[in-house]
Design goal:
Pfam family, one: Lipoxygenase
Shape: elongated
Largest sheet: none
Order of helices and strands: HHHHHHHH
Number of helices: 8
Mean pLDDT: 83
Organism: Sesamum angustifolium
Radius of gyration: 24 Å
Protein name: Lipoxygenase 2, chloroplastic
Distance between the termini: 32 Å
Keywords: Dioxygenase, Membrane, Metal-binding, Oxidoreductase, Transmembrane, Transmembrane helix
Oligomer: single chain
GO molecular function: metal ion binding; oxidoreductase activity, acting on single donors with incorporation of molecular oxygen, incorporation of two atoms of oxygen
Length: 173
Amino acid sequence: MGTEIRTVGHGDKKDEPWWPELKTPDDLIGILTIIIWVASGFHAAVNFGQFDYGGYFPNRPTIARTQLPTEDPNGEEKNRFLDRPEEFLLECFPSQLQAASFTAVQDILSTHSPDEEYIGEQIQPYWAEDKVIKSAFERFNGQIKMIEGIIDARNADTELMNRTGLDWCHTSF
């Protein structure tokens, strides 16, 4: 697994010194932990909020067709900006087609699939037959629920700043 990911999946980075070793069970656990994190919590934090924050392109335009005025604009640029700021700004924004295309992509990326499965929610039937796997799954599920409780408590604590959290990352959604 490690060799293919390194040499095929990331062939351009195959000789980098930061690649983890895959020689022991602990090495495998570390690698799988990273893969699971990226495919679950990190993915939820990055993707599911894209439309909320970037779907309205004036909040976060994906491209600028022209440069915004700098702190030290030349005389002509400054005068044009001061005379017609709306026109100047609209020239910077993406075209309607560019904005609509990117907004559609953000909507797709941030939409939950109707058949979406959530980590730790249900054990696969063929895993449930193995007592060791079932026991490990139940421990994992309990830890997920405990973490959910910690997040809920922190979000409810009015003494904490930035407590509203990322709703789309909540494990019960």
